[in-house]
Amino acid sequence: MPAWSPDFPISPRRAPFFYGWIIVAVATLGIVFSIPGQTMGFSVFTDILIRELGLSRVELSTAYCVGTVLSGFTLPWLGRVFDRFGARKLIVGSAVSTGLVLYFLSTVHRLTEWLETVLPFLTGSTIAFIVISFGFYLIRVSAQGVLTMTSRNAIGKWFDYHRGTALAISGTFTSFSFSIAPKILDEMINSFEWWGAWIALGTASIFGMALLGWVFLRDNPEECGLVMDGTLDASKKRKAHADSITHRDYSRKEAISTAAFWMFNLSFSFFALFTTAVTFHIVSLGEAFGRPKEDILNYFIPMALLSVATNLLFGWISSQTRLKYLLAVMNLAALAGVLGTLFLADGPGLLAYIVGNGICGGAFAALGGIVWPRFFGRQNLGAISGISMSSIVIASGIGPLLFSLSFVSAGSYVPILWISALIPAALVAGSFRADNPQRQG
């Protein structure tokens, strides 16, 4: 179709510089526009939804878990769709879908009230649970799932030697965006009401992100008559670490049979589980450890600064070292973040909470985009990263529920935090088994 031609409406070959950097800019915006589907974007709506829908904290967390886990099971199939149709079509489709879902979410309170009159044999809480679970499913699969996966994979397809640098630059902007998102969303809620904020975000996604994606994004450099990194400079390849050279493409079946896939995947999934749970219950958790709402939200800013610094550092050294060592650092930081949360009321605990989560977040952002194309090639990138994204999304749905159950049953978040600390401790040791399969091929 002419509308999807690589040279329409603009030709990447005519850009005065390597077009991959335009891809970085547009893909970064794609990740930013996924915020409404991320837990960071939901955290300020949590207590509002509890009030508006008449649900308890456990009921809302359960709905979040159900919707998120179901979306996670959808993502492996959508990863294959990415391989078939490419980043450009998927970013347009996911941006439009995200906007429409946000329109739907803005009506959940009214829809619940209407359904109570239509379905008198169901309780109001049951209807509210079903409606918001469906909403969570849609927003998680469209925004957190496909929009994020497509944006990260797009960058990975345009760069090889400079992949780490490109993802680090992207991560710098997304980290700042994510860190200030709760405060901006809180201001939007104060200005437009909570439902008006979702309508505004949905409109921006449909008429902003989708249009930008169609105009500027392209699936890969080859279809545009270009090459990765913009040059075939052999000297760069000679400088690259042996662990950063891709010799062949792996199938999805081959990839998931390697220890490296699971070490990275489990590490990413734990980070998603923990950070989602903490962010989802951030206000309640802050109160439990004596940190007021204003303070606990402000801690996202120094965490973002550390995340940006880590992202840049990891991006810079990723082509010069083995990724399993960087994974070990990420898991050590995750352990520090968990222990810091346990002792959040104290000064050293607060420092560990900020530093650990900041470093872990930056490492996750860098490694998540680098590891799959480096370890397994580009041909089946969507199918392989789709499995990983599925695990991440499912874990992110389970986390808030586990923390809710701990708080309700034990009256504290302490039990689940001690259990959580065991996982990154084990993953630190497992990180050293995450060798690049390309070294064996």
Annotated CATH architecture: Up-down Bundle
Average pLDDT works out at 89
* CATH class assignment: Mainly Alpha
Tell me the major beta sheet: none
List the helices and strands and how they pair.
Blueprint: H1 20-32, H2 39-42, H3 46-53, H4 57-85, H5 87-105, H6 108-118, H7 124-158, H8 163-216, H9 234-239, H10 252-255, H11 259-280, H12 282-288, H13 293-298, H14 300-317, H15 323-342, H16 347-376, H17 381-410, H18 414-431
Helix pairs in contact: 1-7, 1-8, 4-5, 4-7, 4-17, 5-7, 5-8, 6-7, 7-16, 7-17, 8-14, 8-16, 11-15, 11-16, 11-17, 11-18, 14-16, 15-16, 15-18, 17-18
Keywords summarizing the entry:
18 helices; 441 residues; Growth Hormone, Chain: A; globular
How would you characterize this protein structure?
- The structure is a single chain.
- Helix 4 runs antiparallel to helix 5 and helix 11 runs antiparallel to helix 16.
- The model has no long low-confidence stretch (mean pLDDT 89).
- By secondary structure, the chain is mainly α.
Please sum up the structure shown.
The protein is mostly helical and 441 residues long. The protein is built from 18 helices and no strands. 76% of the residues lie in helices and 0% in strands.
